[in-house]
Amino acid sequence: MSAKYEVVIIGAGHNGLVCAAYLARAGKRVLVVERSDQIGGAARSEEVFPGFRFSVFSYVVSLLRPEIIRDLELPRHGLHILPLESTLTPLADGDYLAQWADHDQNRRELARHSVKDAEAYDEFGRLMYRMARAVKPFLGMAPPDPASLTLRELKALARLGSNLRGLGAEQFHALHKLLTMSAADYLDEWFETEALKATKSASGIIGTFQGPRSPGTAYVLLHHYMGEIDGVFRAWGFAKGGNGSVSAAIAAAARGFGAEIRTDAPVARVIVRNGRATGVALESGEEIQAGLVVSGADPRRTFMQLVGAEHLPSEFVEGIQRFRFRGSSGKVNLALSELPDFSCLPGNGPHLRGAISISPSVDYLERAYDDAKYGEVSREPYMDIVIPSMIDPSMAPPGQHVMSIFVQYVPYDVNGGWTDAKREAFGDTVIDTLAKYAPNIRSAILHRQVITPADIERMVGLTEGNIFQGELALQQMFFMRPVPGWAKYATPIDGLYQCGSGTHPGGGVMGASGRNAALTILGELK
Amino acid sequence: MLRTTPFHARTAALCASHAWRRWAGYVVASAYELTHEREYHAIRSSAALLDISPLYKYRVTGAHAARLLDRVVTRSVGGIAVGQVLYSGWCDASGKILDDGTIHRLGEEEFRMTSAEPNLRWLEANATGLDVSIHDVSDSIAALAIQGPSSRAILQVLADTDIESLKYFRLVETTLRGVPVTISRTGYTGDLGYEIWMDTDDALEVWDAVIDAGTAYGVVPAGMLALDLARIEAGLMLLDVDYVPARKTLIDRQASSPYELDLAWTVDLRKEHFVGRTALAGESERPAEWQFVGIEVDWDSLERLYGAVGLAPQLPSTAWRTSVPIYADGKQAGYATSGGWSPLLKKYIALAHLKRPWFEPGTAVEMEITVEHVRKRAAARVAKKPFFNPERKRT
Would you call A75 and B346 a contact, using CB atoms and an 8 Å cutoff? Predict the structure, then answer.
């Protein structure tokens, strides 16, 4: 029997599309089925308010793998990554801390707060660069399993080991610290400026249900430096047209290689016969046969909903149930009639073309986490703000603006559950917090879109609204993601694979999971 | 003394980098901001405003104006309509390129010619016996280029005529907020873009108007570093950098014919006479020995060469303008003359002169690079020019 498709992929999120493109490039007949009426999953741009385009969920390109950009020729398919160069941290006392792309400008600004920090900054950057270079090869491979003693695993481990051996003692010890310490403690060893430590540590807590003082958060700092290695290649920044352009470019590449993409085609279940996946059944009742099924949905949705526990070994089911999601972030998107006017740095300027981080101190972030621990939205949340129209004016009508506010902590399991009133209260909290730094914000708002973790789950199907398809915490990374022994994209069901960010190396619009999954599948088909 | 352009009062105030470049005896900004990155991206994403006043400009009028230009340049000028612009090179009697530029037909008997080098004497030398007058208007006409996807919308806000319908390589005489200007849909970036020609006295008024109307569309004043990357992506050659004009050659082999510069399309041998025609007609019957091509350097090869010393690829973020050997089949196959990292295409690209048979697109070659002070050869491939050619350029 020859099915029309060799591979059917569930979900046209960026990883599903990347996987489809690589498989189609290798000559496979590939179909992607997407439940929504548009592609992109959580990497999509939408005109939520007339004339204003939003990156509704994910909003910057930070870790998209350079090899994917090259292999799929994404620039030819319309991907244009614009620089996002500075970070502004407004402070409660009316001052600010800015981090600039220009070295001298950055040093002078840091020295205004601490001469020591200004000098430590370069040394810190160099150490992180060297560690990131040693760890980076991890991202582009199926993670070797140290519990396995097969020759293949040992070889892969040895390869990684030789990378790490290249690190000097100082860097090796630092790496150990990164794997064990909290972001706040690790940064304490280097810097004294509160706002600097807080803003840097924020990258360690994004998408997790942990605070900057939770052990293990230091490691995620390192991910931030992966982009630095790529240097002038510059895979990080803002995608012209919003993050939907990333998905659109990948989809165009996939179609160019012959892949088919069907939207409005929600999958009801994976068809399993005699322990083997043979296709998918759509909610419409239509059945699509395929040699292989690849799921871009998160592990819980894939196994508990689309496959069903009855087809799976019980210890695997337990592992999936233990895999933590705990969505902790929300999003507020604003259409603005004018730019926000920050009291610390009034007027228009280059500071509005980068990130604006509401992270004045480590205590501030930790308190925000404290609220969430007990089931409440942070009274004063951490916010990562960008004004996309300052970078790409075509996102809004001339002279007007869009603002993207990433907010943490917004617990999925909020006390009493999410209601419309709670959502609006969360939106108010965000605006109230921002108004402390930019008082004109309220009067500038033309439209407000508030997205809770429950909304993320409902709108894009991410379990518990976790933006990474599962927390990026050390205990569920590498060979543990999503379940020990099943971190290499294959599953206990023959012919069923995973390609979402619930697998190694995780989320962040990296595309690495989709690529690694495709390469694994192609390797096994040989 | 270096001269400043009519826009200097504005450009100097903006030039935070203090980085200036010489161009035809003038100084123009290399980059306004501390790095040129945003200025480059503006060309491809929104709109960039560039001071191009140092171009040489000549006004050619009279009953025989078209005849003179037809006699000088290799393309046919007589056939173009009023309101049309033409790009061409021009040659000496041996068919070697002297210069290249644009010819704007402003009226039946009125043209404006732009060039990189002075050409007054050459034009006059060829005008003997013709009813034509030639004026060097380089100092009395200021020029701005506005280039990028939003350039049309910005000019439409300002202009008193329909800019939307202005076709590629056409011009219109109009007013911008009341100031008389000529707008041509031309440029040196390979993108949607326009050039604005105006009286020197009106320069600042026009600059201010474009900034005022363009800010909401993201217009960014851009310098030569940004332009240099864009023109390499567009595959456009630069005099003195990519070729030696025949007037400046010290030995014959330094000169190039249009056929060797990928400009065969600009040589119109149907014209009865133009300077260099005899030589070019002869050359057209032989296969070219050299060709001016694009080069794409292979990323994996760069990664291997730099990886061997423990580094990630170190790439040039500004364009280089030096002669770099290109090899093929173990021999030197030619040389690259400009190159750089394309932030848009995410590719290391270069423009190069290659000998037959290596100039065919797709040919595997190697480009010399220096990795930690050691000369290496990176795998590369001959690529079609332009590297970047968006539909919006012409539509």
Answer: yes
* Residue contact B217–A102, C-beta within 8 A: no
CA distance A396 to A389: 6
CATH 3.40.47.10 fits B3-54+139-222, yes or no: no
Residue of A69, A133, A393 lying closest to B312 (CB–CB): A133
Joined tokens for residue A488: 């290499």
Q: Which residues of B touch A229 (CB under 8 A)?
A: 312
Write out pLDDT tens, residues B1-35: 899 999 999 999 999 999 999 999 999 999 999 99
Global ipTM: 0.93
* DSSP-assigned letter for residue B361: T
Distance separating alpha carbons of residues B176 and A417, to the nearest angstrom: 59
Check A394 against B150: CB less than 8 A apart.
yes
A5-46+60-80+239-324+464-525: CATH class: alpha beta
- Our CA-based measurement puts residue A31 at a distance from the nearest CA of chain B, in whole angstroms, of 28
User: The tokens of B270 are what?
Assistant: 């149907």
**Is the bond preceding residue B54 a cis peptide, omega within 30 degrees?**
no
Strand segments, DSSP code E, in A399-508 are 401-408, 445-451, 496-498
Q: Delimit the domains of chain A by residue range.
A: 5-46+60-80+239-324+464-525, 115-192+203-229, 329-409+415-451
Domain locations along chain B: 3-54+139-222, 57-130, 289-395
Q: What is the pLDDT along chain B (395 residues), one digit of tens a residue?
A: 899 999 999 999 999 999 999 999 999 999 999 999 999 999 999 999 999 999 999 999 999 999 999 999 999 999 999 999 999 999 999 999 999 999 999 999 999 999 999 999 999 999 999 999 999 999 999 999 999 999 999 999 999 999 999 999 999 999 999 999 999 999 999 999 999 999 999 999 999 999 999 999 999 999 999 999 999 999 999 999 999 999 999 999 999 999 999 999 999 999 999 999 999 999 999 999 999 999 999 999 999 999 999 888 999 999 999 999 999 999 999 999 999 999 999 999 999 999 999 999 999 999 999 999 999 999 999 999 999 999 999 99
Nearest to B38 among A80, A83, A240 (CB): A83
Q: What fold characterizes domain B289-395? A: Elongation Factor Tu (Ef-tu); domain 3 (2.40.30)
Contact at CB, B44 and A80, closer than 8 angstroms:
yes
pTM of the model: 0.95
Where is A214: in which H helix or E strand? none
User: Does domain B57-130 bear CATH number 3.30.70.1400?
Assistant: yes
> Cα separations (Å) of A237 from A59, A151, A354, A388, B128?
10, 40, 9, 11, 59
Residue with tokens 């033309």: A446
Phi-psi region of A114 (alpha: psi -120 to 50; beta: other; left: phi over 0): beta
A233/B45 CB distance under 8 A: no
Closest CA to B215 of B163, B160, B153, B164: B153
Structure tokens at A60: 């910057």
Q: Please enumerate residues of A whose Cβ is less than 8 A from a Cβ of B.
A: 66, 69-70, 74-76, 80, 82-83, 85, 101-102, 105, 133, 166, 229-235, 240, 353, 392-394, 398-399
- Tokens 């423990």 correspond to B310
